[in-house]
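Sample A.
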Amino acid sequence: MTHTKEEFIDALKDRTKQFVLRSIKLFKALPSSEEARIIGKQFLRSASSVGANYRAVCRARSNREFFAKLSITVEEADESLFWLEIISESGILPMEKITSLMNEAEEILKILSKARSNSSHN
């Protein structure tokens, strides 16, 4: 099944939005400890930036702006993945509670990184 460029863009907009919504649910499920609150806020900031910044990518007015905004989105997706690893490895939440969201973060990161490497930023 082939998709048009517009269908792909819309699907990724929805996917990044769903990632943000799932991240909010995970944040709400964190324990009320001080470390969970601090790490959780860091995670939520970066995860919500993935969706917001991808929308900005879609509105870029030039190739240079597109590349710059896409680079920010890649960085935020990678940071989200980092905080998920910290949440798991620190014992804030068990791995089985975050595996699905980590997998989604990894897939989004791969898609965005590939798009960045294929884009012309001149």
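Sample B.
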Amino acid sequence: MQFDSKFVIVIAEDLPVWQKLNVVSFLSGGITSTSAVKTGERYVDGSDNTYLPLCIQPTIVLKVKRSKLPTFIQRANRANIETAIFIEDMFATGHDEANRSTVRYYDTESLPLVGIAMCAEKKFVDKVVKGAKLHD
């Protein structure tokens, strides 16, 4: 199946695995809270137990040097693409309000980014994340 949009998460390649998984989890939650991502129907197993619906399109996880993430945010902002972000400081906070407070502390150019996510028209997303590589 082909999609007009692309759901992509870009993470800093130097993070430990547990942090990468944490960042991907938080960022996917941010993007799936928007209308850009469509979910399917609930799943039902053979015993009639139901499970939550999932995103209907693949999520592409990319990696990049940390120093490239500010460029991606600038490109996304110029293109008016909604993004979810995760900054280094958020590993030390314990709840959403503290996360928002620590982000508010920084100007856009100074954000210590470790991950970003977006779902938008393919051609625009591809321009934003140009230079990132598929995560292995």
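B remarks: The longest strand covers residues 113-121. The domain at 5-134 is CATH 3.40.1490.10 (Bit1).
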